[in-house]
Design brief:
This protein is of the alpha/beta class and 278 residues long. It has seven helices and 14 strands.
């Protein structure tokens, strides 16, 4: 596969929160696919083939006088990504039992030790949505359950589900780099019962799961909830994240249309991860 060229935006923001979260959400809407948060702001990445110089001109937060945002732009190749994330990636602890770390971090004494190399993929555990979805998985019984991780990114949610006894598991992401990265991370953590696929909800025809995990964004979730319901076994569970608290009513209303009952939500910095039962 030819080496892909990415455009890297380095945003310095003040205040860091909620500026970073709002900025990431708005950038995601226009095609930016990977983010690294640090103490000064956000590094954001978009494939050069999907980018134009005016890409961020219509980002609303850049015009908001309540936020101070400066940025620089440069090209970056995939092979240079490791140096970028090694500089910024710190191990993440979720509760008392789970740590998400890179291979160069020391192994912790926890029940669930997940080792990933995110490269250009979303899902390191740093972002609120991934952190909360990991929390949901830790809090719920996955033993012997079939699981779908939709929009899998690094594959970290599928990996934790496997560690908690789920099987079989499928992980799907529309981005080729995420697909390849998830396959690497699944192999790195030693799980042969996780199958990784490249694609979208169109792959779910005639498939059934006990649990579906979807950490994507509001618009895709609203579009795909009917497909998820068709793919859930009776009594199944749907975990959704990638949206703000103000979007919860709209997400819940859509779920209710398809006989899904809201059971619980987690909140972190205005992001939400919700649990629904079928």
């Amino acid at each position: 596969m030819a080496n892909i060229i990415y455009i890297e935006y380095v945003f310095t923001v003040f205040p860091v929160q909620p500026t970073s979260d709002i900025l990431i959400a708005e950038l995601g809407e226009i095609g930016f696919e990977s983010f690294v948060e640090n103490e000064n702001g956000v590094l954001a990445y978009i494939q050069k083939t999907d980018w134009k110089e005016s890409a961020v001109e219509d980002i609303a937060i850049l015009k908001n006088e309540n936020f101070k945002i400066e940025y620089s732009v440069k090209e970056i190749e995939q092979e240079n990504w490791n140096a970028t994330w090694e500089e910024n990636f710190k191990a993440i602890q979720v509760g008392d039992a789970c740590v998400v770390r890179a291979p160069f971090h020391d192994a912790p004494r926890v029940e669930y030790d997940i080792v990933i190399e995110p490269k250009m993929s979303f899902g390191t555990g740093h972002h609120e949505t991934t952190f909360m979805m990991l929390s949901h998985i830790l809090e719920n019984d996955f033993k012997g359950k079939s699981v779908l991780d939709m929009g899998s990114g690094t594959g970290v949610l599928a990996i934790l589900a496997a560690m908690k006894g789920a099987s079989p598991i499928e992980a799907i992401d529309i981005d080729n780099w995420c697909y390849l990265n998830a396959k690497e991370n699944v192999e790195r953590n030693g799980f042969s019962n996780i199958q990784v696929f490249e694609g979208d909800a169109g792959l779910l025809t005639d498939k059934k799961f006990d649990v579906i995990i979807a950490n994507i964004n509001r618009n895709i979730l609203l579009e795909d909830i009917p497909v998820y319901v068709k793919s859930l076994n009776p009594g199944g569970t749907l975990f959704l994240s990638g949206f703000y608290l103000e979007d919860l009513d709209k997400i819940t209303s859509k779920c209710k249309e398809y006989s899904l009952k809201f059971e619980k939500k987690l909140e972190k910095n205005n992001w939400v991860a919700a649990k629904y039962v079928f």
